[in-house]
Design a protein that fits this description.
Layout: E1 22-26, E2 63-65, E3 70-77, E4 80-89, E5 97-103, E6 111-114, H1 115-118, E7 129-130, E8 134-137, E9 141-144, E10 148-150, E11 153-160, E12 167-177, E13 186-194, E14 203-210, E15 213-223, E16 235-239, E17 248-249, H2 253-256, E18 279-280, E19 284-290, E20 301-307, E21 313-315, E22 318-323, E23 326-328, E24 337-339, E25 343-352, H3 365-368
Parallel strand pairs: 6-13
Antiparallel strand pairs: 1-12, 2-12, 3-11, 4-9, 4-10, 4-12, 5-6, 5-11, 7-8, 8-9, 13-25, 14-22, 15-20, 15-21, 15-25, 16-17, 16-22, 18-19, 19-20, 23-24
Protein name: DUF2961 domain-containing protein
Pfam families: DUF2961
InterPro entries: DUF2961
Length: 371
């Protein structure tokens, strides 16, 4: 017999299977997701454009978030699971729009991140992302496919930190109401930024996690403050009591993001010109390389993602994740590594049991600003 939860575990191999799950969707045209209540608005951001047409004609396609305001995008009574989030905004400063998600009436959120970084777009500039978990499509269409089960309640909020400009948000939260199995963990995502990274310190992607779960992905927005190659550093996963040395240690930054040789085919193939090469795949990518123009845009900036969909990092009690920032010194003889002092931001993605340990306080907008 098909489990009710099987309606959430969909792939091309089992889409034909029936389920007792009930499909629902929240948007500005149906703020509650109730059955048969969509498209009933008589006022909203599209009311002027729909004048003369009447109810049902795209009266409320978006919401307006005033400076300093926090709006609830979705408040759902479970059990069930969020299956997809689509969102776009006219606001160009994506670090000013903070996404928070709360599960089962926890006091502390399990997701805290600027919307750009959460959707693999940390530099306020569009780049195509084509992956299983996150897709970013023209123009500025943010899509998230992480499955997010909950048992009692799911609440999604967005805060507008911009003191001068309101935010216009178009969004759709697609979810299912269904039983949730006992072994289903809760989705988490945490943003961090360090600018500049102190000399000879590792960058912390994630720390302070307690409970049982699995780490499932990393996005990094990396801005270099030095010339030359910047990605010799190793990622390290400290789990279940690891202190000085990790259980899992990578071999290089581009290696962790499933590239090789500086993301530059010209390093090993003389027939190719030497340059960074963007790529986006289902599980890993370097979708964004922002190159300096030699006048005002002086920094190289990179956006990278790595999803542990087939190889989750499982932990029983605790988890800490770090990345070294490492380049090369200029000596041609007896080359040595150079610890870098770069501008690095990240979002860590993982599932774990509740309760969630409180996250570090998010820095103010001046510190997070992309300049």
């Amino acid at each position: 017999m098909t489990s009710p939860f099987s309606g959430l575990d969909l792939n091309l191999g089992n889409l034909y299977r029936l389920s007792n799950a009930k499909t629902r969707s929240i948007s500005p045209e149906n703020f509650t997701g109730e059955k048969g209540r969509g498209g009933m608005a008589t006022e909203g951001t599209g009311a002027s454009c729909a004048r003369g047409l009447g109810q049902g004609w795209k009266i409320s396609p978006s919401i307006r978030i005033e400076p300093g305001e926090t709006r609830v995008l979705a408040d759902i009574t479970g059990p069930g699971a969020i299956q997809q989030i689509w969102l776009t905004t006219a606001n160009l400063r994506w670090r000013d729009l903070i996404l928070r998600i709360y599960w089962d009436d926890q006091e502390h959120p399990s997701v805290v991140a600027p919307i750009g970084d959460f959707f693999c777009s940390g530099w306020n500039k569009f780049s195509q992302v084509t992956s299983l978990a996150v897709c970013v499509n023209p123009g500025r269409a943010f899509n998230c496919y992480w499955q997010m089960p909950f048992r009692q309640r799911a609440r999604i909020e967005i805060e507008n930190r911009d003191p001068d400009d309101f935010g216009i948000i178009y969004y759709q939260v697609n979810y299912a109401l269904t039983d949730v199995p006992e072994d289903a963990a809760y989705f988490h995502a945490q943003f961090r930024r360090t600018n500049p990274l102190p000399f000879k310190e590792d960058y912390t992607i994630l720390d302070g996690v307690t409970g049982r779960g699995q780490f499932v992905g990393t996005y990094m927005a990396w801005g270099t403050n030095n010339a030359g190659w910047w990605g010799e550093g190793e990622i390290k996963f400290f789990m279940d009591g690891d202190r000085d040395f990790p259980t899992i240690c990578g071999t290089g930054t581009e290696d962790y993001f499933c590239g090789a040789y500086n993301f530059d085919g010209g390093v090993v193939d003389a027939t190719m010109d030497s340059r960074y090469r963007e790529f986006t795949t289902p599980y890993a990518g370097l979708p964004q390389v922002i190159r300096p123009d030699g006048v005002y845009e002086s920094q190289m900036r990179f956006g990278m993602y790595r999803w542990h969909i087939h190889d989750p990092i499982r932990f029983d009690n605790d988890l800490r994740v770090t990345m070294q920032a490492l380049g090369w010194r200029t000596e041609k003889k007896d080359r040595r590594y150079l610890p870098l002092q770069d501008d690095i931001a990240s979002v860590a993605f993982w599932y774990q049991t509740l309760p969630t340990a409180p996250f570090p306080e998010l820095a103010d907008r001046d510190y997070l600003e992309v300049i």
